[in-house]
Amino acid sequence: MTETKKQTSPLVYIGIGCLILLFLIGVGMTVFFKFFAKKAIETVIENKTGVNISDAEQGKMTFTDEKTGAKVDIGSNKVPDTFPKDFPIYPGAKVTSSLSGSQTGENSGFWLTMTSSDSVEKVTAFYKTEFAKNGWKVDSTFSANNTVTETVSKSGWTGSLAITKDEEATETQIVIILGQDEK
Predict the structure, then answer these.
(1) Per-residue pLDDT tens for 25-79?
(2) Torsion angle, CA of 16/18/24/27, rounded to 10 degrees?
(3) CB-based contact 97:113 (threshold 8 Å)
(4) pTM
(5) Burial of 150: CB neighbours in 10 Å, binned 0-12, 13-18, 19+
(6) 111: number of CA atoms within 13 Å, CB side?
(7) Are strands 94-102 and 61-64 parallel, antiparallel or unpaired?
(8) Is 112 exposed, middle or buried (0-12, 13-18, 19+ CB in 10 A)?
(9) What are the strands of the beta sheet with 108-116, ordered from one edge?
(10) pLDDT tens digits, residue range 153-181?
(11) What is the DSSP string of 137-169?
């Protein structure tokens, strides 16, 4: 008996080649569209909102209303430059988030969150001393379960200070909310 060798049809090779080519085109188009679609979307967002996407990726965003001049800054993990200089900032505290807002010729406001490895008692004692030194009036104080909240005021500014530490937490959280009184 003689063996007959079957020859593979050239159509099979053409079909396999087409599949490989389609796969390579698909991968190439995916990479191409990921890059260019991302750039196109970023450009549209930046143009419509005024937010710089590279800043947003770093955790910072600024929104400005062109009509009113109202401005909101979010992020940057630092005390905003326009934060009242006479409001005490706990030494060594790490700023974990910040938000500031203002409107041209109008009021400003701030929300600042910080953490410290010190106890609630130590942080509270610091603020009690520093508020008195800097002329801030403590209007009310609430204290319960490792949490202290104070409302404060000083010549055109009002706000609150919250100092707290959960039982499981390793750090004390300090939250400052300040706003200018209406002019």
Answers:
(1) 777 767 666 666 666 666 666 666 555 555 555 556 666 666 666 566 666 678 8
(2) -100
(3) yes
(4) 0.65
(5) buried
(6) 7
(7) unpaired
(8) buried
(9) 61-64, 71-74, 94-102, 108-116, 172-180, 157-164, 147-154, 137-144
(10) 999 899 999 999 988 889 999 999 998 87
(11) EEEEEEEETTEEEEEEEETTEEEEEEEE--SS-
C-alpha 164/C-alpha 172 separation (Å) is 6
Which contiguous run of DSSP H or E holds residue 71? strand 71-74
Inter-residue contact 87 to 176 (CB < 8 Å): yes
Q: Supply the DSSP symbol for 118.
A: S
User: Residue 61 is which amino acid?
Assistant: M
On whether the CB atoms of residues 116 and 90 are closer than 8 A, the answer is yes
The one-letter code for the residue type at 86 is D
- Closest Cα to residue 178, out of 84, 74, 114, 73? 84
| Residues 53/42, Cβ–Cβ less than 8 Å | yes
